[in-house]
Write a structure and sequence with these properties.
The complex is a heterodimer of chains A (182) and B (277). Chain A has 10 helices and no strands. With 182 residues, chain A is an all-alpha fold. Chain A has 2 domains: 102 residues, RNA polymerase sigma factor, region 2, helix turn helix motif (Rna Polymerase Sigma Factor, Chain: A), CATH 1.10.1740; 80 residues, Arc Repressor Mutant, subunit A (Orthogonal Bundle). Chain A is globular and about 50 Å long. In chain B, a hairpin with a 4-residue loop joins β2 and β3. The longest helix of chain B is centred in the middle third of the chain and has 100 residues. The radius of gyration of chain B is 55 Å and the shape is rod-shaped. The N and C termini of chain B lie far apart (123 Å). The chains are: A mainly alpha (182), B alpha+beta (277). At the A-B interface, α2, α3, α4, α7 and α8 of A face α2, α4 and α5 of B.
């Protein structure tokens, strides 16, 4: 059965989620499952665990949607933080640490890219290119914080950098991204 | 806030950390407040968020196709169970929770009220007891005073009786002179024991003022001998002991400056009487 992907505008989606319409969860999945899965997968680096976490993420998004405040930020920011927090909790849990080999953090992103074919959205092909143009140290930091779930304090420790440097470098790499979009 | 400060706030990198959920609740709240106040900060936040979304999109990892139905069904299952029985369970739980707090709160209030009432009662009782103690102490003191008074009365009555009974006492009634024709006074004299008693109850003399006192004199072989001073007032009773004396022919009372004089002021003689043998 071919999946007909549902797409709504962010406003429509939020309205439908508020009204708890069934179509909302389908649209939500079609629009964001890949992005959220990318975030989760990069953190846990384990396919089955990532699948469970993706499911947990959608259930949590659905259940705690009443606490989402569109005044405070974009829907995706809120959802990605749910996905990231669930993944970090998982990675830091005892049973996870016992079951998985410790991956070298520096290899994380490469590992992901080597192991899986990331779904390349034609709209973001250029972004992919741009990302490859980020300075290596910017990319490392961005991935460490955005995809590995490191706090900026932990990232500073990991990279042996002062907190201020971490913050500025993070900001500079995001500005690079923004330059491309705006 | 000045434009410089807003710029500084933006450039500190705090907004990026906010978007990535890497701030403490306090810091997040600060960012939200600032974004509400300053459109520039809100705009900056929006741009960061958009960039991060596109970045996530560009680095997306598509889940297996089979996962779609599984996840959508699981969310729908949660939703259905939410709508039907679970809602009830949740609301029951809430009710029981609420009920517990309601009962606990009501009990606390009730206990508080009872405590207040009990405290009030005890306080009132304490006040009453203290008042009773005070009044008892007062009447106790009154009784003690009365006992003292009666003791004194008894003592002076005993003295009077002993004087009146004694065959050795001679009673001399001093009569008023022209200074005080109606005045009179009774003096008891015991030559053997050298005692001179003045019966204050018998004193019928004008009251002396504060500057003056009456002085009792004895005439011994024509010479006045000082026997002491006394006051005359309406409420004085009993007998007072005057100075010792073994022999006299007459007694007299003069009005003298307070404390008495060495020699009697004859013009101020109020009463006098000779001792009859």
């Amino acid at each position: 059965m071919a999946n007909r992907k549902i797409k709504l505008s962010e406003e429509e989606l939020i309205r439908a989620l508020r009204a708890r319409e069934k179509i909302a969860i389908e649209a939500l999945y079609d629009m964001y499952s890949s992005s959220l899965n990318g975030i989760i997968f990069r953190i846990v680096q384990h396919e089955e665990i990532a699948e469970d976490l993706l499911q947990e993420t959608f259930v949590k998004i659905w259940n705690s949607f009443p606490s989402f405040d569109s005044e405070k930020g974009r829907l995706f920011t809120w959802m990605s933080n749910i996905a990231r927090n669930l993944s970090i909790d998982k990675v830091r849990s005892k049973d996870f640490r016992n079951n998985s080999k410790n991956q070298d953090i520096d290899n994380t992103v490469n590992f992901v890219d080597e192991q899986r074919n990331t779904s390349l959205n034609p709209d973001t092909m250029g972004v992919k290119e741009l990302i490859s143009k980020l300075k290596p140290e910017q990319k490392t930091l961005l991935d460490l914080v955005y995809f590995k779930g490191y706090t900026h304090v932990e990232a500073a420790e990991e990279l042996g950098l002062p907190l201020g440097t971490v913050k500025t470098r993070l900001r500079m790499s995001i500005i690079m991204l923004r330059k491309y979009f705006n | 806030m000045k434009v410089d400060n807003i710029k500084e706030f933006i450039e500190s990198g705090i907004l990026e950390l906010y978007v990535m959920g890497d701030l403490s609740p306090d810091e997040s709240q600060e960012v939200e407040l600032m974004a509400e106040k300053h459109p520039a900060i809100k705009q900056e936040l929006l741009e960061i968020e958009t960039a991060m979304e596109v970045y996530a999109n560009a680095t997306a990892v598509a889940p297996k196709d089979s996962l779609r139905d599984k996840i959508i069904n699981s969310v729908n299952a949660v939703e259905t169970s939410h709508v039907a029985p679970e809602t009830k369970v949740v609301s029951l739980r809430r009710e029981s929770n609420n009920g517990f707090y309601k009962i606990a709160f009501a009990a606390s209030v009730a206990i508080l009220l009872i405590s207040w009432a009990a405290l009030f009662l005890v306080y009132n009782k304490l006040q009453n007891s203290q008042e009773q103690i005070a009044s008892l102490q007062g009447s106790n003191r009154q009784f003690a005073n009365r006992v003292n008074y009666f003791n004194k009365q008894l003592e002076s009555s005993k003295t009077e009786i002993s004087v009146l009974r004694s065959p050795d006492f001679k009673f001399v009634k001093l009569q008023g002179t022209k200074n005080a024709p109606d005045a009179s006074i009774l003096v008891a004299f015991n030559p053997k024991q050298k005692e001179v008693m003045l019966d204050l109850a018998s004193v019928k003399m004008p009251e002396n003022d504060k500057q003056h006192q009456y002085q009792l004199w004895a005439l011994v072989d024509g010479k006045p001998v000082d026997l002491g001073v006394f006051d005359a007032s309406a409420d004085t009773t009993g007998m007072i002991r005057m100075k010792e004396l073994s022999n006299a022919q007459a007694f007299a009372v003069t009005l003298e400056p307070r404390g008495g004089s060495a020699n009697p002021t004859m013009e101020q003689m109020m009463v006098m009487g000779a001792i009859s043998i």
